[in-house]
């Protein structure tokens, strides 16, 4: 296991050292559990009381946190400890690559363009005309369809399916069992018979995009489905055909985005939310978890509609009252009319 000195870590994040610059760590741990040879950090001011008792070899703190630390603590002082933690976690990351070299069992068409240092895992299939960028990693069991493009330094974990003509940019990360470029849900009804509409658009994904496991992103019906740069999408999400997601947007687990929806830049959509299609969400909108968004959002802000859990008896009473809202409304109107006279 590799060790990292305080001096080395400070150089990575541009932090200021207080204490022994030569002290070393080999792992990161939570503030209340970190011990010798471990680094920890503070992410919220409510945890400041724990700083004086912390046993970690290195504490990542802000200037405002220093007075709460023990005199003999080894500190890495930064502007934003949580951001520094994220960068240090990347620097110290020991996660293996999804593949190494090209496995003998991989099936790669002769017409595929492979960049330098590409790795392809066991039983992966790459079809005619696909283009794989330098240092890309294709995990075991992946499928890359005809004319698809995978950018440089992009990594696909095991069993990812990339359909034909899908384009994925540089420095992307796609977790296992995600499907990109499957058919959108397009059908016409002819007197009870469903007639499938071919989905002839593509999926275009920008650079530095991360997509969680078991997420599905459908190809466009006529135009393309587009995911711009620096978007993060969690596990088990459904992105329907012709959706357009703007730069820097974050989408939590279980979200469903209906077709032809346009989501602006730097939005946040909470888990298990459902957003209607054929409308637009403006830049910098925040939608809290389990929201049902039925109308366009035109102004930045925080939007909610989820119903919090409550004791069953309380919920049951409220449900009974809610079932008679129409009756109550009529009675109130009648009372208002009577009082008005």
From TrEMBL:
Catalysis performed (reactions): a UDP-3-O-[(3R)-3-hydroxyacyl]-alpha-D-glucosamine + a (3R)-hydroxyacyl-[ACP] = a UDP-2-N,3-O-bis[(3R)-3-hydroxyacyl]-alpha-D-glucosamine + holo-[ACP] + H(+)
UniProt keyword list: Acyltransferase, Lipid A biosynthesis, Lipid biosynthesis, Lipid metabolism, Repeat, Transferase
Domain of life assignment: Bacteria
Keyword Electron transport tagged: no
Catalytic site: 241 (proton acceptor)
Gene Ontology BP term (one): lipid A biosynthetic process
Molecular function per GO: N-acyltransferase activity; UDP-3-O-[(3R)-3-hydroxyacyl]-glucosamine N-acyltransferase activity
Pathway in which the depicted protein is active: Bacterial outer membrane biogenesis; LPS lipid A biosynthesis
Pfam families: Hexapep (PF00132), LpxD (PF04613)
GO cellular component: membrane
Domain UDP-3-O-[3-hydroxymyristoyl] glucosamine N-acyltransferase non-repeat region: 22-90
Assigned EC number: 2.3.1.191
Subunit structure: Homotrimer.
Function statement: Catalyzes the N-acylation of UDP-3-O-acylglucosamine using 3-hydroxyacyl-ACP as the acyl donor. Is involved in the biosynthesis of lipid A, a phosphorylated glycolipid that anchors the lipopolysaccharide to the outer membrane of the cell.
Protein family membership: Belongs to the transferase hexapeptide repeat family. LpxD subfamily.
HAMAP family per UniProt: LpxD (MF_00523)
Protein name in UniProt: UDP-3-O-acylglucosamine N-acyltransferase
